[in-house]
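Q: What residues go here?
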């Protein structure tokens, strides 16, 4: 019996990993619909593979997230450049995050049921599932941060070193990971199972300081090397401004610039309402858990609370796609939702159900949540028929010379094997298009009806022949005479 009890946490962890994998791996290329930002974050790695230059497309995102881009270079070298390969990285990171959350909660609370429920809610959450099926930054960033949090609650110097290195890698995946530093420090102070009071100990404060100085120091050293290597591009990458076109997803060009950051209560409120609409179970339960945590004297509640509040504070001043950054707080929300479920489903210890590790009523609730999430994700899969067709990339592979430069929408650029430029980033209107074609020696223009404004088509048709046409778009060939 003791052997069975000892193996129970690992069996439950296996269930968490299986559920997380089933929600993240099947039909990974087909769902969700590819977003332009997935091309934006992967095009630099693709261009490095094809041309040895990070900045062919004018993008400087490699300098914002060197770890993500370097891992994608390895993946693209093994599997070939594609959105699907980049999505695989994040799907694995999402599965790893669920497993790490299980171990983090188990270690800090010594409550296996709470660890299982929290990790399972994170694994099934439609919101976390969708984000970890996209080729974006946050899933890898969060996974590395969770490794750091586990290091922070591990005894000895090895835990400190692990936490510092992992958090540095998270910051080097995206600099906005610094918003999780208060949470990391809180885990170092209050997350150890041996901590019994809310008053911070000097040992815990020293441990937190060592981890934070180590993490920030390593990250700054790497960013410093990147600055010295690419000074002009580095300053442009960290300008923290957007063109109106980038901010709105349109074609506003360089005529007006807005700051990425600043308080906007209306935008924040809309983002939170959107999250409640997209994943009502998680957010309603997490809200109840927050209410219970206020009156909970366990030190670990301070750690999870600091993590959630610091991350929400950053998203409250983020003007560009704030919903993305709530993903960084998802494990804390899943833990608080588990706290609410645990309190609502608690049974007397003496009853037959009370002695079960996972009571049947809790199993029933988790099954209902799971069925809802399966239905939600399944309906999304059925509605993902507007996926950018692979025929365009296949045509380029068969007909374009490897050195031919292609102008296309961002979500085509990673899969197209040629050097590829995003039209809306460097050609925000037709007046600049001809000069771009001459200066960048564009050989083909892939015009698609999903992303390009209709006003571009007559301009292109009047100047260049159509060499391939599909229902979703067409390819214009630029003759040598039109290129300088």
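A:
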């Amino acid at each position: 019996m003791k052997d069975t009890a000892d193996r129970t946490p690992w069996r439950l962890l296996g269930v968490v990993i299986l559920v997380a994998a089933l929600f993240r791996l099947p039909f990974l290329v087909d769902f969700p619909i590819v977003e332009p930002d997935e091309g934006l974050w992967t095009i630099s790695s693709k261009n490095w593979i094809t041309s040895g230059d990070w900045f062919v497309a004018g993008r400087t995102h490699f300098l914002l997230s060197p770890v993500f881009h370097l891992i994608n270079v390895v993946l693209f070298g093994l599997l070939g450049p594609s959105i699907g390969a980049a999505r695989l990285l994040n799907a694995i990171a999402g599965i790893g995050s669920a497993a790490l959350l299980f171990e983090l909660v188990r270690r800090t609370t010594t409550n296996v049921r709470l660890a299982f429920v929290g990790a399972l809610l994170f694994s099934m959450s439609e919101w976390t599932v969708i984000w970890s099926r996209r080729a974006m930054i946050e899933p890898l960033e969060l996974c590395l941060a969770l490794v750091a949090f586990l290091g922070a609650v591990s005894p000895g110097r090895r835990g400190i070193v692990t936490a510092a290195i992992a958090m540095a890698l998270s910051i080097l995946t995206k600099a906005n990971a610094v918003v999780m530093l208060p949470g990391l420090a809180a885990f170092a102070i209050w997350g150890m199972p041996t901590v019994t009071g809310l008053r911070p100990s000097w040992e815990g404060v020293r441990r937190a300081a060592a981890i934070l100085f180590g993490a920030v120091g390593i990250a700054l050293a790497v960013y410093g090397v990147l600055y010295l290597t690419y000074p002009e591009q580095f300053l442009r990458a960290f300008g923290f401004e957007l063109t109106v076109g980038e901010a709105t997803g349109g074609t506003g060009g360089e005529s007006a610039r807005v700051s990425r950051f600043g308080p906007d209560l209306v935008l924040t409120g809309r983002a939170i309402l959107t999250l409640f609409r997209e994943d009502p179970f998680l957010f309603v339960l997490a809200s109840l858990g927050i209410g219970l945590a206020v009156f909970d004297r366990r030190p670990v509640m301070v750690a999870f609370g600091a993590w959630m509040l610091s991350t929400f504070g950053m998203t409250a001043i983020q003007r560009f796609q704030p919903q993305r950054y709530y993903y960084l707080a998802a494990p804390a929300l899943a833990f608080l939702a588990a706290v609410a479920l645990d309190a609502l489903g608690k049974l007397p210890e003496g009853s037959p159900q009370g002695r079960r590790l996972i009571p049947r009523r809790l199993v029933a609730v988790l099954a209902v949540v799971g069925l809802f999430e399966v239905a939600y994700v399944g309906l999304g899969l059925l509605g993902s028929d507007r996926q950018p067709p692979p025929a365009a990339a296949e045509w380029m592979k068969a007909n374009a010379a490897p050195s031919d430069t292609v102008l296309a929408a961002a979500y085509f650029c990673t899969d197209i094997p040629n050097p590829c430029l995003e039209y809306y980033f460097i050609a925000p209107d037709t007046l600049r298009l001809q000069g771009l074609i001459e200066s960048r020696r564009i050989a083909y223009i892939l015009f698609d009806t999903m992303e390009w404004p209709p006003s571009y088509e007559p301009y292109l048709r009047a100047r260049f022949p159509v060499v391939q046409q599909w229902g979703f778009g067409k390819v214009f060939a630029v003759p040598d005479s039109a290129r300088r």
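A: Context that may help when evaluating the design: The chain has two domains: 2-382, 391-482. The two ends are 79 Å apart (CA to CA).
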